């Protein structure tokens, strides 16, 4: 093939894009062996923001978890916070600890599921069969058949026994209330919780990290990480396996997006303190987060409304029709959220950066955001949050209340916002209530931020930017580098549009 | 080897997430032990993009046999019949069309979860997406495929309903199709497997003693029965949630909140708040299954009068105030 032929821009449509939660379609333009432009299409519209209108306020706690089967508790907590904000109800200390435990249980389950079931199987693809590391990696991580799946599924299910005990079941609990939870934990159940957490910790320390969680959490420079990595053979623990693949394939150079990271903060502690702070991180420093600067733009979304006029979610609208599905420039059901007009990336990496993690700050400052940084952000969060969960469980006081009550069934008027960090990043619910009924509901989910389409100025979303420059080998129909980058964001497509 | 294809559309993916909670054995081992081969599952399989489209086309051209077709999520017919609320990624073809064509090839077609079975949450309120179940629209037979549809093995769509489904409901239904010869008698009028739908959520409810004496909770977290005030439908809901608990030992009622009858068609629109019991003249509108109203009223007022203090007080508390009295042998 002549040079001019290979330089011809090519279009490629990748989908159905799987091992993400939900369905996804990506249109790529490719020239000279690299992606030059990407358009990310969130293919599914269900209309929760429309379904909720007119419903009794407390019934939002039935509908909103069902936005998403993988971030169900996160949706519940965001909804409960919005209702609490609108009604002025406070949370009991036990209620706050219980919600933290439930949210952490779901988030860490998701981080684990992502790493083992969604992300790592791509390294067992035949495209890598000539690599020196291929055989053991295929044996361990091959989709469905790999030995890791059989170790992870029971550990995951055992960890989720916390949900059975504290929330009835997962997904889709109604236990999470504006004032706490509906499940008081007895002394016996508290003992059981500690046993569940200790067993999950054992799994992480033996299988994922091959080391104590404290040792992993104490790694604070790239040099320390390298030294730890090379203490043992690369096949000792799944973190070393990942770092080995990252080195071999240059995953720390792949998938840089906007390098502006948002966390809205998470896990309330006593008073107004939170375990994880809110803020916006760039390599130049951390700025405060201002919720009033969020807008959603529908210029490239299959939505009715006024293009070029982004709205704050408290004013936002969601209207769809046959006409909107034929909007000429539009290519996704997803709106385009912006913070002060800018694209931001959100997720575990953002939480770590805003929270001041020195290792990840060094990695991103040196090489830019990357597949490696995102995956490492998740694994380090697993290491740091499990000990925190053990402390929270020990602090539960079985003889004290778990829920503060307020009569939300009455003719309440009010508006509120619930902002939390789900596994995949910043999640916001905005509600307005009139006469006890919902008159307005808007949701901005983590993957709405990360997989946003272009805005009125034509600026691509975070993933769209992260895909530009991704290498594409001749003849690749579903380029493997594109797959690593997309899955490094751990998208949840059902949340994205909702 | 039995081939299984799993597709998701207008739902939340929660039935898959729940399925991954299968224990003793885990899901992958269970399928392998039963000789079920996953042709493709959106959350688990390696194949993506072009490989998946090729697989679907091979099924349609009979190059690959499709034995079990599992559909999760509602079928979105809107806007205005175009199906554009979900075009399967990479294909620009509505998911409802893929499901219609693939169902003609399937040995058995299963609707997993209440969305796929009856329309579910996605069809709530004004049903903006024109969501329906695969072969039911709410309580009515029809749905996407029509009331007359039968899969290759001569069965209507099997509705493993629930929001979400218990992992065992799905795995045991799959196993029953592979290891047994199912007949229509194994399913109820909504074509739900009787292996879980012949039970009521009330069976095995840990609040049964409170129910017996109508010692009722009024606020989330209180220990009493939730039927009288808090909207609990456990005495009417067809499922075995309390005799076969979730995530270890959980269930909705054990979690301190009402059963919302999520295995039933149209549960998503109760026409009143989910968490308040509608009443006429102080008597709950929905009576326990098969209970004559006059008897319910008579027994309820009798048992209320007989409620032991222990239950009356515990019912309105988050903690057990009074444990049951010890009966000691009368040693002298």
Structure description:
The complex is a heterodimer of chains A (498) and B (332). Chain A is 40% helix and 17% strand. In chain A, a hairpin with a 2-residue loop joins strand 2 (24-31) and strand 3 (34-42). Chain A has a four-stranded mixed β-sheet with strand order 8-7-6-11. Chain A has a three-stranded antiparallel β-sheet with strand order 1-2-3. Chain A has a three-stranded antiparallel β-sheet with strand order 12-13-14. Chain A is of the alpha+beta class and 498 residues long. Chain B contains ten helices and 13 strands. Chain B has a five-stranded parallel β-sheet with strand order 2-1-3-7-11, sandwiched between helices. The radius of gyration of chain B is 23 Å and the shape is elongated. Chain B starts with a strand and ends in a 17-residue tail after the last helix. The model of chain B has no long low-confidence stretch (mean pLDDT 96). The chains are: A alpha+beta (498), B alpha/beta (332). The interface between A and B is large, with 95 and 82 residues.
Care to give the gist of this entry?
Chain A is α+β, with helices and mostly antiparallel strands and 498 residues long.
The end-to-end distance of chain B, rounded to whole angstroms, is: 71 Å
Unreliable stretches of chain B, pLDDT < 50, 5 or more residues? Answer: none
Mean pLDDT score of chain A: 96
* Greatest interface by residues involved: A-B, 95 and 82 residues
Based on the structure given, which CATH architecture of chain A is correct?
A: Orthogonal Bundle
From the spread of the alpha carbons, the general shape of chain A counts as: globular
Number of strands of chain B: 13
Which band does the percent of strand residues of chain B land in?
A: 5-15%
Indicate the proportion of strand residues of chain A: 15-25%
Radius of gyration of chain A: 22 Å
Q: Give the radius of gyration of chain B.
A: 23 Å
Structural class of chain B: alpha/beta
* Tally of helical segments of chain A: 19
Tally of separate domains of chain B: 2
Helix content of chain A: 25-40%
Q: Work out the count of structural domains of chain A.
A: 1
């Amino acid at each position: 093939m002549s040079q001019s032929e290979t330089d011809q821009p090519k279009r490629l449509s990748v989908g159905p894009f799987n091992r993400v939660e939900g369905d996804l379609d990506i249109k790529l333009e490719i020239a000279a062996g690299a992606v030059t432009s990407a358009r990310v299409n969130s293919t599914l519209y269900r209309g929760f923001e429309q379904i909720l209108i007119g419903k009794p306020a407390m019934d939002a706690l039935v509908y909103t978890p069902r936005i998403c089967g993988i971030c169900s508790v996160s949706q519940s907590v965001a909804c409960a916070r919005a209702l609490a904000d609108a009604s002025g109800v406070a949370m009991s200390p036990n209620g706050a600890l219980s919600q933290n435990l439930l949210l952490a249980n779901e988030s860490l389950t998701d981080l684990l599921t992502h790493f083992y079931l969604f992300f790592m199987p791509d390294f067992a693809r035949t495209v890598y069969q000539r690599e020196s590391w291929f055989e053991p990696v295929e044996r361990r991580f091959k989709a469905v058949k790999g030995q890791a799946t059989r170790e992870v599924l029971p550990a995951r299910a055992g960890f989720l026994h916390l949900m059975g005990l504290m929330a009835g079941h997962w997904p889709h609990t109604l236990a999470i209330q504006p004032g706490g939870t509906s499940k008081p934990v007895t002394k016996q159940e508290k003992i059981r919780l500690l046993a569940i957490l200790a067993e999950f910790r054992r799994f992480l320390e033996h299988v994922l990290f091959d080391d104590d969680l404290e040792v992993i959490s104490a790694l604070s420079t790239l040099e320390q990480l390298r030294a730890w990595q090379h203490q043992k053979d690369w096949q000792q623990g799944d973190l070393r396996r990942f770092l080995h693949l990252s080195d071999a394939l240059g995953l720390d150079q792949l998938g840089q997006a906007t390098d502006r990271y948002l966390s809205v903060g998470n896990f309330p502690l006593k008073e107004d303190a939170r375990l994880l702070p809110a803020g916006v991180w760039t390599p130049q420093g951390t700025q405060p987060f201002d919720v009033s600067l969020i807008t959603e733009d529908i210029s490239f979304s299959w939505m009715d409304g006024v293009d070029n006029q982004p709205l704050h979610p408290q004013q936002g609208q969601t209207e769809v029709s046959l006409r909107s599905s034929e909007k000429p420039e539009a290519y996704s059901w997803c709106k385009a959220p912006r913070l002060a007009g800018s694209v931001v990336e959100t997720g575990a990496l953002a939480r770590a950066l805003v929270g001041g993690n020195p290792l990840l700050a060094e990695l991103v400052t040196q090489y830019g955001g990357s597949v490696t940084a995102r995956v490492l952000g998740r694994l380090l969060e697993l290491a740091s949050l499990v000990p925190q969960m053990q402390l929270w469980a020990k602090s539960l006081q079985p003889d004290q209340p778990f829920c503060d009550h307020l009569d939300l069934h009455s003719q309440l008027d009010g508006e509120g916002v619930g902002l939390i960090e789900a596994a995949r990043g910043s999640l916001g619910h905005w509600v307005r209530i009139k006469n006890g009924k919902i008159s307005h509901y808007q949701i901005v989910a983590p993957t709405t931020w990360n997989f946003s389409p272009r805005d009125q100025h034509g600026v691509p979303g975070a993933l769209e930017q992260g895909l530009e420059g991704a290498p594409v080998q001749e003849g690749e129909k579903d380029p493997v580098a594109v797959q690593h980058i997309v899955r490094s964001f751990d998208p949840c497509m059902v949340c994205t549009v909702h | 080897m039995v081939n299984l294809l799993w597709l998701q559309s207008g739902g939340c993916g929660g039935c898959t997430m729940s399925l991954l909670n299968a224990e003793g054995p885990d899901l992958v081992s269970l399928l392998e032990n039963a000789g079920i081969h996953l042709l493709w599952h959106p959350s688990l399989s390696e194949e993506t993009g072009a490989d998946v489209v090729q697989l679907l086309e091979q099924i349609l051209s009979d190059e690959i046999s499709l034995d079990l077709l599992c559909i999760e999520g509602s079928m979105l017919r809107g806007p205005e019949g175009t199906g554009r609320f979900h075009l399967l990624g990479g294909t620009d073809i509505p998911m409802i069309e893929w499901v219609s064509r693939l169902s003609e090839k399937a040995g058995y077609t299963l609707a997993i979860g209440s969305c796929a079975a009856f329309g579910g949450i996605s069809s709530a309120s004004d049903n903006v997406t024109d969501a329906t179940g695969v072969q039911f629209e709410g309580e009515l037979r029809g749905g996407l495929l029509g009331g007359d549809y039968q899969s290759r093995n001569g069965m209507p769509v099997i509705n493993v309903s629930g929001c979400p489904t218990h992992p065992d409901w799905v795995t045991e239904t799959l196993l029953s199709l592979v290891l047994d010869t199912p007949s229509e008698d194994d399913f109820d009028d909504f074509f739900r497997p009787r292996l879980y739908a012949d039970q009521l959520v009330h069976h095995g409810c840990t609040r049964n003693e409170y129910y017996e004496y109508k010692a009722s909770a009024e606020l989330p977290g209180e220990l009493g029965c939730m039927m009288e005030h808090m909207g609990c439908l456990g005495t009417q809901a067809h499922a075995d949630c309390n005799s076969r608990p979730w995530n270890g030992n959980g269930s909705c009622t054990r979690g301190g909140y009402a059963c919302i009858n999520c295995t039933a068609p149209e549960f998503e629109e109760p026409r009143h708040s989910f968490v308040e019991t509608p009443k006429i003249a102080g008597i709950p509108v929905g009576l326990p299954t098969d209970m004559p109203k006059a008897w319910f009223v008579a027994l309820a007022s009798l048992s209320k009068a007989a409620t032991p203090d222990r239950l009356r007080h515990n019912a309105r508390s988050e903690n057990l105030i009074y444990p049951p009295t010890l009966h000691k042998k009368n040693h002298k």
